[in-house]
């Protein structure tokens, strides 16, 4: 949500013709998928994002479609003993201004949890690489030729900067009068 506001996603006509949905749309879809997977557990988040009941009722179907697609793509389930997909996780050195972003991304454990999920639950035919590194741009992407998921430390730095700016703005404005309070959920 913060990146959608910060980058004025949807502010120009070319945003609507881009290959990816707008940041704000993706944020709501992620919330919907969470609700679709477990309506009760994620009800507070759906409430925070003001996801209306009609939309919540369709989230289950969105989630099931994505789940079936992933399972079809990732193959049959492996034994829960780590004999599924071979996954290599590498955190490259960042140094300099990206040192804190690299440390924050690594400590989040996101790559490690997803890698464990692939190892323990799916049989992807090819080895999968997860690489976190300095890329020269704020991005994250999948390279099908190398079967590699790349997360750029610059993107983590952008997220950290956006969060810090949002926290600072919230502290400077009285509650109830914040633009955030009026236009979008927390």
Give the N-terminus to C-terminus distance in angstroms: 9 Å
The class by helix and strand makeup works out as alpha/beta
Specify the helix fraction band. 40-55%
Main sheet?
4 strands, mixed
Average pLDDT rating = 81
Shape: flat
List keywords for this structure.
186 residues, alpha/beta, 2 domains, four-stranded mixed beta sheet, 4 strands, 53% helix, flat
Question: Could you please describe the fold and organization of this structure?
Answer:
By secondary structure, the protein is of the alpha/beta class. It folds into two domains: about 1-75, no CATH class; about 85-160, no CATH class. The protein has helices at about 1-5, 15, 25-35, 45-50, 55-75, 100-110, 110-120, 155-170, 180-185, and strands spanning about 85-90, 130-135, 140-145, 150. Strands 1-2-4-3 form a four-stranded mixed β-sheet. Helix 3 (about 25-35) packs across helix 5 (about 55-75) and helix 6 (about 100-110) crosses helix 8. Mean pLDDT is about 80; it is low at about 180.
Task: Describe what is shown at a glance.
This protein has 186 residues and is of the alpha/beta class. Helices cover 53% and strands 11% of the residues. The model is unreliable at 178-182 (pLDDT under 50).
């Amino acid at each position: 949500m913060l990146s959608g506001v910060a980058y004025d996603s949807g502010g120009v006509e070319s945003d609507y013709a881009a290959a990816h949905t707008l940041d704000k749309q993706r944020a709501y879809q992620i919330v919907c998928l969470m609700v679709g997977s477990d309506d009760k557990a994620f009800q507070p988040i759906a409430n925070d994002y003001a996801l209306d009941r009609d939309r919540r009722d369709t989230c289950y179907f969105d989630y099931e479609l994505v789940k079936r697609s992933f399972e079809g793509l990732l193959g049959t389930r492996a034994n829960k003993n780590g004999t599924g997909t071979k996954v290599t996780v590498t955190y490259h050195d960042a140094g300099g201004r990206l040192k804190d972003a690299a440390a924050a991304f690594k400590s989040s454990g996101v790559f490690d949890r997803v890698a464990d999920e692939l190892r323990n639950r799916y049989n992807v035919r090819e080895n999968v690489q997860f690489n976190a590194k300095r890329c020269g741009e704020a991005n994250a992407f999948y390279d099908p030729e190398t079967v590699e998921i790349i997360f750029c430390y610059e993107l983590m730095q952008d997220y950290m900067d956006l969060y810090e700016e949002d926290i600072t703005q919230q502290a400077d404005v009285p509650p109830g009068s914040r633009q955030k309070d009026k236009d979008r959920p927390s």
